[in-house]
What we know:
By secondary structure, the chain is α+β, with helices and mostly antiparallel strands. It is built from 9 helices and 20 strands. The chain has a 6-stranded mixed β-sheet with strand order 6-7-8-3-9-10, sandwiched between helices. α2 packs across α3.
Amino acid sequence: DINVQIEGVTKVFRSDEEGEIVAVNDLNIDIRRGEFLVFVGPSGCGKTTSLRMVAGLETPTEGRIMIEDEDVTGYDPRERGIAMVFQNYALYPHMTVKENMSFPLRIRNYPDDEIDERVDEAAELLEIDDLLDRKPSQLSGGQQQRVALGRAIVREPSVFLMDEPLSNLDAKLRVQMRTELNEIHKRVGKTTIYVTHDQAEAMTLGDRVVVLNEGELQQIGPPQYLYDNPVNRFVAGFIGEPPMNFLQVTIEETDGGYKAVGDFFEFELPDSVGSDLDEWDGSLDNVSLGVRPEDLSDLSVLDEDEYTENSTLEATVKVVEPMGSDKFLTLTPPTDSETEFSARVSPESTVSPDSSISLSANLEKIHLFD
Ligand code: ADP
Ligand code: MG
C-alpha cells in the first residue's frame, strides 16, 4: 500500500553567481503507508529540497509527486494532506500550548468542540496534557518539540514531513527525543518522511533509510541492511560510526578464488566476498577493501579456533581509547605512519600506544569497492 510516490523528480536551481545547481537528480521512491522513511546525507545533498517538493513548497523541474494515488505536483501545500515540522519549532510565544496547538484548526474554522477534542487527544498522545496552559517560554526544548508535533498531529494529516526537527536540542535530549519520536510514530501510525544529516538518527528512526549524495539516491533500504550491504564506498563510509576503514589492495586470482593483497596483509577472500568479483567492472589493481572497526579483533584475546591464518595483519598502535564496552584503537600499518585506520577491540585487550599489535579481520564482513 503506497502512500507517497516521488517519480523521476529533479530540481534545478538557477542563480546568477553559480549558474545551474542540480539539487535533486531523478529521484524515484515509493513510500509505504505508515512507514517512517528517513532521508540522510551530508549538508547540501538535497534532503531539504526533496522534502519541500513533497510539501509543495518547491516545484520540481521534472517529475511528479503522488499522494494517495493523486498527482499533487501542481497543488498548494494546504491541499496535500501533509503537515510539516521544522527544526525551529516556530511556536507563537504569546500563545499558550493549547492555543498553539489549536491554531491550525482555528484558522480552518473548525468548530470549538472538535478543536478541543483533537487538542486533548493529541496532548494525551504526546503526554503534554498537563502543560496546556503554559507559554512556550515556560517549556523545555523537548516539551516545545512535542508541542510543535502536537500542532501537526491535530490536523490529522496523512503524511508528516520533518526537517531535522531535533537539531536544535542538546546531544542528550536529542537521543531521548529520538526514542520518543519512535514511540509517538508507533502510536500515531502515520507515514512520516524525516530528514537528517545524522546517520545515527537515521539508523534508529528509519523503517527504511534513503542515502543521498550530491542530489542522487545512493541506496534505499532498512538501516541494518544498508549497514551490512552498502552498495558503494559513499554509503559504506557514511553509515556506521566510527566509519568503515578503507585499505588499498590489489585482487589476485587463486585456485578457484581470489585473494586481496595489501601493503601489509594478504587475505584469502571467502566465497561470499569473492563472488562480488565475478561481475567486477573496475580495475582489480586498485581496489578499496572496506572493514568496519568492530570487525578487527586483537589476536591475543582470541582463541585459536576463532580466526584463520590468512585473516591476520600487523599494525602499530597510535592511540588507545577505552570506551567501557570496548577499546577504540587508532592504528597505522607497520611500514607507513601516514595511513590511519581503526579497530574496536575487546576491553580485555592490553594494548598500549606505540606498541605493535596482531589483529584478525572478520573476512566474512569485509567489502570491496572500486
Ligand atoms: P540539504 O538539506 O541536504 O543540506 P538542500 O536541499 O538544502 O540540501 O540543498 C541542496 C542544494 O541546492 C545545495 O547545493 C543548495 O545550495 C542548493 N539550494 C537549495 N535551495 C536553493 C535555492 N533556493 N536557490 C539556489 N540553490 C539552492
Ligand atoms: Mg537541509
